[in-house]
Amino acid sequence: MTVYLGAAPGVGKTYAMLDEAHRRQSRGTDVVVGLVETHGRAATAALLDGLEVVPRRTVAYRDQEFGELDVDAVLKRAPQVALVDELAHTNVPGVEHAKRWQDVHDLLDAGIDVVTTVNVQHLESLNDVVEAITGVRQRETVPDHVVRDADQVQLVDLSPQALRRRLAHGNVYRAEQIDASLSSYFRVGNLTALRELALLWLADRVDDALTAYRRDHSIEEPWPARERIVVAVTGGPEGETLIRRGARITQRSAGSELLAVHVLPTDGLPGAAPGVIAAQRELVEQLGGAFHTVVGEDVATAVIDFARGVNATMIVVGVSRRSRWREALSESNGVEIARLAENIDVHLMTHEKARAGRRGARPHGSLLSRRRTVSAWLLAVLGTAGMTLLLRPMDGRLGLPTELVLFLALTVGVALIGGLWPAVFSAVAGFFALNYFFTAPTGRLTVDAPENALALAVFVLVAAAVASVVDLAARRTGQAFRARAEASALAAVSRSVLSGQDSAQALVGRLRETFTLESVALLEREPGRGGERGGEPRGGEPRGGERGAWRALATDGARPALHPDDAQTVVAIDDARVLALRGRVLPASDRRVLDAFASQAGAVLERGRLRAEADRVHALQQADVARSALLGAVSHDLRTPLATIRAAVDGLRSPDVRLDEDDTAALVGAADTATSQLERLIDNLLDLSRLQAGGLKPVLRPTSLDEVVPLAIEGVDPARLDVDVPETLPLVRTDPGLLERVVANVVGNAARHAPAGTRVRVAGSSTRRSVEVRVIDSGPGLSEEQKDRMFEPFQRLGDTSPGGLGLGLAVAQGLADAVGAELTAEDTPGGGLTMVLTVPRAEEAA
């Protein structure tokens, strides 16, 4: 399949397709025209000369005939190549497939090559983007994969100015459409945006093809077809500098991509603060790039593997923050990346923190309590002294190796309790104790035998190494436990949002459960009550005015704090709202999760405020629209029956005109009809005003439809109706009077729009949960767009319905909602509209 892709109608897709057909035919290829739309363009029609055209299939639909692609005829003809225009076209009902691209697949499956055309606005993934640009929603679309899977996609390109000239010369649309098209869809801005969409979409497809080719041919080294800049970030303070530098490099070449990558260690624990990583991710996205997180045992190898996987052309990495003596012991990540990069350029960038030394280690207090640290130091001092006193009498019997092992065991125990530095002290103290008391010559810090000196040196190294490993394992365990707890808490918050449990009450309940608190309260400062206390609040927390100046929006637990001063921990949401926690004082390490809960609480409150504001604005907007439409319609539709009544009364009362009985009856009948018409309009207006004012109070009770339907259809000519509502239908729970108005409006609307000589059918049926009343007509029907608007007030089919404000269906919909029923519209098979009124059964409603 070959697809000619264009940015807009008129760029020359069909012309290019026919030109290709002539070239292939001149080379001896068997080419036929399955279907081509010339749209009255003479130059395009001229290219059909000399090509075999397969006759179209004629399909009758709604008293009209349409020409569609005759797939069977093309299959029977069995050419080598078939031309099929407008791939996104929707077939007329009655054709085997709903879409033309499905017909094309039938031809492809039969071994026939297809050349076709499509515009970028018809691609499904771009439909909403095109609507935002042009204001026009395309009803006919084709799935992207259909075009992506084509063997060839050729762009037919034309500048916006050239396309507008072509349009102005009458080469695209008829003369009467030119001005409107130039001022709406074919504006320069629209065409430029559509052209960019087409180019970008095609570039992505080409990039996918290149990636697939490299994968199929096992090509691992990057091909610099497009500049891709990978910035390696560690979460350190230099990250923003690296990202901005990478963005500047990206901007030098059009079409370049910015990618940032952060490597997590294989144990899954974060090596940088999540807040810093989140801020750098946001910065990358603001600069038009993408942020990626990968897991790798070795940072340099992980960065290189990622860069090769995305076909990167350059890696931006910062100079190491490690000090020079640490650089001498092992290569930095930047140097290692440069060594492994091979044919990928590496930009090693300096920054303010370069060579500033490693980031300070996390304080022990963050994971080890003060009590454990003090205990470890006491054990290091007293344990070394006690071990010396214990082993001194047995020195001759145990030997130096056993004594070394016992002191090593003491060092490991100190590391388990208090971490690295008490263990290092224990190792050094053990070294001096072993040297002075247990290594010949004793009583001096000298060693005679070389093997004893080596044993002591190895003891110190092994003790320090073991202490370091034990300390690291203990810290990793603490970090893992905290990370798991934080992840569980944050996941619970996210899960509550996804499951719809985003109320303030649910949030404070989740917070109390997470931290096992006595109570949690969501407080809001009451405006205008109490003065502000002087000075800034402590710790950045908002402080209320006088006692009682705060009100609780949601609480959970016993004895909630109703004022921030009554709580052990206060978390600020914004200037006017706080979370007040009671039960225990939470450490600073829990602040990250608390801030997440506070952010979620703020989002919940803001969402509720916006929802209420949107409802209020929508109600005001609807009321304004109704008032404006009513004022415009009263002068048009209410005047007609009033004028008829006035004319009839003037004719009856005129002393200058002598009327016979027939004339008098005609005038009285006209006045009567106009009066009924006016009464119906006023009833609809009153019903609509009651619905909008919320003053409608339905009285629901079990009701039989055979009591409602006959009364509802009294005003319709019986010759126009076929009624099939069995008496055996189950009872429904409704307000009989209001349901009667619903049925009357729907039936009256169908009778007015049904063609003369046809009948409207009213049929009733039941399901397990409800009873349905179907009002079926064979009129002109409605398009999907008209169905979307049919229940709005003042909507009339083509503005041709006489004697109505277009309120019938709006009132029917409102009354149906009021009594718990549902009113929907469906297409009538063979043409027309079917209104379906679904009313709950009495036993089901109960």
Structure, described:
There is one protein chain. The chain has 846 residues and is an alpha/beta fold. The chain has 27 helices and 24 strands. The strands form six sheets. A six-stranded parallel beta sheet has the order 3-2-6-7-1-8, with helices on both faces. The two termini are 60 Å apart.
* CA gyration radius, whole angstroms: 41 Å
How many helix segments?
A: 27
Strand order of the largest sheet: 3-2-6-7-1-8
Query: How many beta strands in the DSSP annotation?
Result: 24
Instruction: Assign an overall shape.
Output: flat
Q: Main β-sheet: number of strands, strand sense, barrel status? A: 6 strands, parallel
> Segments where pLDDT lies below 50 for 5+ residues?
357-366, 529-547, 798-806
Instruction: Classify the secondary structure makeup into a structural class.
Output: alpha/beta
Distance linking N and C termini: 60 Å
Mean pLDDT: 76
Q: Per DSSP, what share of the residues sits in E-state strands of 2 or more residues?
A: 15-25%
**Percent range for helical residues?**
40-55%
Brief write-up:
The protein contains 27 helices and 24 strands.
Secondary-structure map:
Layout: E1 2-6, H1 13-26, E2 31-35, H2 42-46, E3 52-53, E4 57-61, E5 64-68, H3 71-77, E6 81-84, H4 100-109, E7 113-119, H5 127-134, H6 144-148, E8 152-156, H7 160-168, H8 175-183, H9 188-216, E9 228-232, H10 239-251, E10 257-264, H11 274-286, E11 290-295, H12 299-309, E12 314-318, H13 324-329, H14 333-340, E13 345-349, H15 370-391, H16 395-398, H17 400-418, H18 420-438, H19 450-498, H20 504-515, E14 519-525, E15 550-557, E16 569-572, E17 577-582, H21 591-653, H22 661-693, E18 701-703, H23 705-712, E19 721-724, E20 732-734, H24 736-753, E21 760-766, E22 770-776, H25 784-789, H26 808-818, E23 822-827, E24 833-840, H27 842-845
Parallel strand pairs: 1-7, 1-8, 2-3, 2-6, 6-7, 9-10, 9-12, 10-11, 12-13, 19-21
Antiparallel strand pairs: 4-5, 14-15, 14-17, 16-17, 18-20, 21-22, 22-24, 23-24
